[in-house]
Structure to design on (704 residues):
């Protein structure tokens, strides 16, 4: 019989070798699959023994020149379905592939289903039932370039699921991929040597390694294979095969070490090892991979699926991890072999170890590379003479951080400021902003010009993160890296991660909730610090309106300043709720302090009453679907003022601000409205933003 074994990209060659070793005749090898021939008992042994296949299908028919419904039906109708089903068997058909006439896979699947039902109706005057969810037999039809292959699912799905994984971490690795990594690491050549996984997660690599070393057939734990439900299945023969595989097991003395920084995930790893019956072979312990210590006097193999973005807090932690891990390897793991899986080659280069070999794989949908290294004496000696930095010029960035912090020291202390900007692209090649929030740092990487080499930019960012941590004595897990670029539509409101970590910062007697991780902006515009102070100092007994209010921080300062009433308007529900939280944080309660989730332009058109102090800080440009019209602050500011004027009291003040570089106030048109403007931009830029005088523009607008 002919079969096809399915697997993940990158494992096909290993699967072909495994099938050959098990006794099958191996045929064509394609992306994610290997064709082989075997008698049924051998096919069952393969399902029990394979570590690299995810599924095995048995071919029952193939035909060229299948073009339409009739061709499809005729091929399926005249198969000997009685060999695979009975009238009492439930079945399902999975169809893939299309052409100009067979455009719908569901329809094509129904054609084959009808052919199978008609076969049994004609012979037995009875028909098997379809069960899409839990069919006893599944028929797989694969259609490509007018050729149709018909298969019976022989193994059932989930061959890679060994049955021991009771719990897993955030980014689990599939068992068949784990087996491939173990094989490629070279450890199986001498299983008496230590195998160490410094980021072991739920323990899959080490558990698979123990099972492979002891020659355990992974399918023995499988609850039931699809072939057990076929009419041709012989239970006694199958049990003989199982017993042969059990007799071939060869337990050995193994030295497997697993380490992870997450104690909760480690407990899952221990449970999984226990469920797999290999807990006696593996020593698990809690430890930080960025500060590795020796684990064995004898050299061995380090094998790990290294963390990537979704598995850790962010870029800074990863840069710190890879950089420090590389130094630890060279310091404590001389003569070891390393096999490290990573989805980011830029991070792998931070290890600063010369690669020996590389193997490409897919971890689910993610492209990954297993890099192998040999830490011989030459590698270790060479590394002792390399700098920690990618570029020697990066020390200029560190020196600027130190200089800026010293320059702001007295001002920060005098005003008790915990959230401020320390660096803002002071050195053009190091094009980032660094903001401090208490004991955390946020690094905004400005989008690089197209003519800047991406690899150079990445290396500079790596140096920036490392030096920010070192110079400011801030651990990597408290450094957040974001890319600052123009936002379109609703993008400014979208989350960039979901860590739900918030903290509180203080400013002129007010407390504000900030979130450094989940959004591009943190909830507090630092450059508006003096604008908020002005509002606090000038809001006593005033009716205050905050438009495009963001998280309502200006409204909080107005409340602290004694505003008679406060109206806070923003179109984001997230930010309006955030504003309410800021009020609660400051124990502010007043029935005249109101919040409105609304498009500010539409709200203004319907607004009634008067306000004595209005803070208006619109976006530079917005074409959000939630706004009535596209808005451009340069083009539309006079129209906006004309609308706001209707609700500005006779002696009222409009505090207008925006962030558009080169913005020009149309003073002539403003006078026609009966308004006048005083530019106070210099007075609203605090010392931490003096290096960037174009950070924003501010005016006080009053009636003439």
């Amino acid at each position: 019989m002919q079969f096809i074994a399915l697997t993940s990209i990158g494992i096909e060659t290993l699967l072909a070798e495994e099938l050959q070793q098990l006794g099958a005749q191996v045929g064509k090898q394609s992306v994610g699959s290997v064709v082989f021939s075997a008698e049924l008992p051998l096919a069952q042994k393969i399902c029990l023994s394979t570590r690299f296949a995810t599924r095995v299908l048995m071919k029952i028919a193939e035909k060229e020149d299948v073009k339409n419904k009739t061709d499809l039906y005729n091929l399926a109708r005249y198969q000997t379905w009685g060999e695979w089903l009975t009238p009492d068997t439930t079945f399902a058909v999975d169809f893939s592939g299309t052409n100009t006439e067979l455009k719908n896979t569901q329809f094509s699947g129904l054609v084959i289903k009808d052919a199978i039902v008609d076969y049994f109706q004609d012979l037995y005057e009875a028909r098997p039932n379809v069960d899409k969810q839990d069919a006893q037999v599944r028929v797989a039809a694969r259609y490509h370039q007018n050729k149709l292959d018909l298969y019976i699912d022989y193994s059932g799905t989930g061959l890679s699921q060994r049955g021991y994984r009771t719990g897993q971490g955030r980014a689990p690795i599939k068992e068949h991929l784990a087996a491939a990594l173990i094989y490629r690491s070279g450890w199986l050549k001498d299983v008496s040597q230590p195998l160490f996984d410094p980021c072991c997660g739920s323990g899959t690599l080490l558990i698979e390694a123990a099972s492979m070393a002891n020659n355990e057939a992974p399918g023995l734990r499988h609850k039931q294979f699809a072939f057990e439900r076929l009419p041709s299945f012989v239970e006694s023969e199958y049990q003989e095969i199982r017993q042969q595989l059990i007799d071939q097991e060869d337990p050995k003395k193994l030295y497997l070490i697993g380490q992870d920084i997450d104690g909760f995930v480690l407990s899952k790893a221990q449970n999984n090892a226990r469920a797999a019956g290999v807990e006696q072979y593996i020593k698990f312990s809690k430890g930080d991979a960025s500060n590795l210590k020796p684990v064995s006097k004898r050299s061995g193999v380090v094998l790990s699926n290294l963390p990537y973005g979704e598995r850790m807090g962010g870029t800074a932690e990863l840069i710190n991890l890879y950089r420090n891990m590389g130094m630890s390897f060279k310091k404590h793991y001389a003569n070891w072999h390393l096999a490290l899986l990573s989805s980011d080659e830029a991070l792998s280069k931070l290890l600063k170890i010369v690669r020996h070999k590389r193997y490409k794989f897919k971890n689910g949908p993610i492209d990954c590379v297993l890099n192998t290294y040999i830490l011989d004496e030459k590698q270790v000696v060479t590394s002792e003479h390399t700098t920690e930095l990618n570029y020697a010029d990066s020390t200029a960035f560190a020196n600027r951080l130190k200089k800026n912090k010293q320059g702001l020291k007295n001002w920060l202390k005098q005003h008790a400021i915990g959230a401020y900007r320390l660096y803002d692209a002071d050195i053009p090649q190091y094009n980032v902003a660094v903001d401090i929030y208490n004991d955390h740092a946020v690094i905004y990487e400005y989008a690089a010009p197209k003519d800047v080499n991406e690899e150079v930019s990445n290396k500079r960012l790596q140096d920036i993160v490392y030096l920010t941590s070192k110079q400011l004595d801030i651990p990597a897990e408290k450094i957040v890296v974001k890319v600052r670029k123009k936002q379109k539509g609703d993008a400014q409101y979208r989350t960039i991660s979901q860590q739900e970590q918030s903290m509180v910062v203080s400013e002129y007697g007010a407390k504000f909730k900030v979130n450094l991780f989940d959004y591009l902006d943190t909830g507090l515009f630092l450059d508006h610090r003096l604008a908020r102070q002005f509002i606090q100092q000038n809001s006593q007994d005033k009716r205050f309106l905050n438009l495009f209010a963001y998280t309502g921080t200006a409204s909080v300062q107005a409340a602290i300043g004694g505003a008679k009433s406060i109206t806070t308007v923003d179109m984001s529900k997230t930010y309006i709720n955030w504003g309410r939280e800021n009020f609660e944080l400051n124990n502010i309660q007043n029935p005249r302090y109101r919040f409105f989730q609304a498009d500010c332009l539409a709200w203004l058109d319907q607004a009634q009453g008067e306000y004595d102090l209005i803070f208006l800080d619109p976006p530079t440009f917005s074409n959000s679907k939630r706004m009535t019209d596209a808005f451009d602050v340069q083009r539309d500011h006079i129209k906006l003022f004309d609308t706001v004027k209707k609700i500005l009291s006779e002696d009222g003040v409009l505090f207008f601000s925006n962030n558009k570089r080169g913005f020009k106030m149309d003073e002539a048109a403003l006078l026609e409205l009966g308004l006048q403007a005083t530019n106070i931009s210099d007075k609203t830029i605090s010392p931490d933003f003096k290096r960037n005088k174009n950070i924003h523009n501010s005016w006080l607008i009053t009636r003439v």
Observations:
- Residues 2-153 form a domain with the VC0802-like fold (CATH 3.30.2130.30).
